[in-house]
Design goal:
- With 282 residues, the protein is α+β, with helices and mostly antiparallel strands.
- The chain has two domains: 170 residues, Endonuclease III, domain 1 (Orthogonal Bundle), CATH 1.10.340.30; 80 residues, Endonuclease Iii, domain 2 (Orthogonal Bundle).
- The chain is built from 16 helices and seven strands.
- The strands form two sheets. Strands 1-5-4-3-2 form a five-stranded antiparallel sheet.
- Helix 6 runs antiparallel to helix 12, helix 11 packs across helix 12 and helix 13 crosses helix 15.
- 41% of the residues are buried.
Length: 282
């Protein structure tokens, strides 16, 4: 069991775009990976996480809790008023280290897609292919394994709302099985460039897979919100994706994954943040 602080922001950590296998349940939040299931419960003293099934997991490592605490003690955080303010308003946003295969396949669904539709497709694939577990008399279904994805007919991916991404899933699943052993030890930009060899994986999707599987702490995915945040906070604007990636990596180093999440969420939720700031100053 892992105790998480009262300031842990479960909504932004679990449902903000890092992961698509978490869901609400009557007990709290349920994470249904292909190889394990996790449960987060909320109490009056905070949150605690426990593993329900699967090979034993280091929960502190999964939530990047030690790295987050080092980020809070770092010069990056202490010198960055933007991060102090964001944490005061948004709480603790952890960065998950998820199963590599689960992250790979779920983010194949993310290209030109929104979080709600991605989660719907993931839930459908889990229902059709995943292992069933019981919790409090209810049935829940874990995300399918890479082997299950590779063996499945293309029609099921269409049925689960993948659209044109269905072909990415089918082709990349087979390639993934052939090459997964060679990717085990890859990290950072080497892994990112390797991921871009898969059909349907561009710069942003590759960054998401690498960062949210715990293999690229020195990077953070770049979308329109991240670009706006970099422009509005640091006055920087670039023509190429890799230039944004390089800027964040150079500025924040090993803390880039946390800095990027706070910049992204602060910009995305800017209207709400400004309202809270205005109310606090009255």
């Amino acid at each position: 069991m892992l105790i998480l602080p009262k300031t842990f922001n479960a909504e932004l950590t679990l449902f903000g775009g890092q992961s698509f296998v978490w869901r609400d349940c009557e007990y709290g939040y349920l994470g249904l990976h292909s190889n394990l299931a996790l449960l987060i419960k909320k109490t009056k003293n905070g949150f605690y996480a426990e593993q329900l099934c699967g090979e034993e997991l280091d929960l502190e490592n999964y939530f990047s809790k030690p790295e987050f605490e080092r980020f809070l003690r770092s010069d990056t955080f202490k010198a960055g008023s933007e991060f102090k303010r964001a944490r005061e308003l948004l709480g603790d946003i952890f960065v998950l280290k998820q199963d590599f295969a689960d992250t790979f396949f779920s983010f194949l669904l993310s290209s030109n897609n929104n979080i709600s539709r991605i989660r719907s497709s993931v839930a459908c694939l889990s229902l059709k292919l995943g292992r069933k577990i019981k919790l409090g008399g209810e049935n829940y279904y874990m995300f399918p394994s890479a082997e299950q994805m590779a063996q499945e007919e293309l029609s099921l991916f269409y049925e689960c709302g993948a659209g044109y991404r269905a072909e990415y899933l089918k082709e990349s699943a087979q390639k993934f099985l052939r090459e997964k052993d060679g990717m085990k030890e890859m990290k950072g930009i080497k892994l990112i460039e390797k991921l871009k060899e898969f059909k349907g994986v561009g710069d942003k999707v590759a960054d998401c897979i690498a960062v949210f599987s715990g293999k690229a702490d020195e990077y953070s995915p770049i979308d329109r919100w991240a670009k706006r945040a970099i422009l509005n906070t640091y006055g920087k604007e670039f023509a190429k994706y890799y230039e944004y990636r390089k800027f964040l990596s150079k500025k924040f180093g090993k803390h880039a994954k946390f800095a990027g999440q706070y910049l992204f969420e602060s910009e995305r939720l800017k209207g709400q943040v400004d309202t809270l700031l205005s109310a606090a100053s009255r």
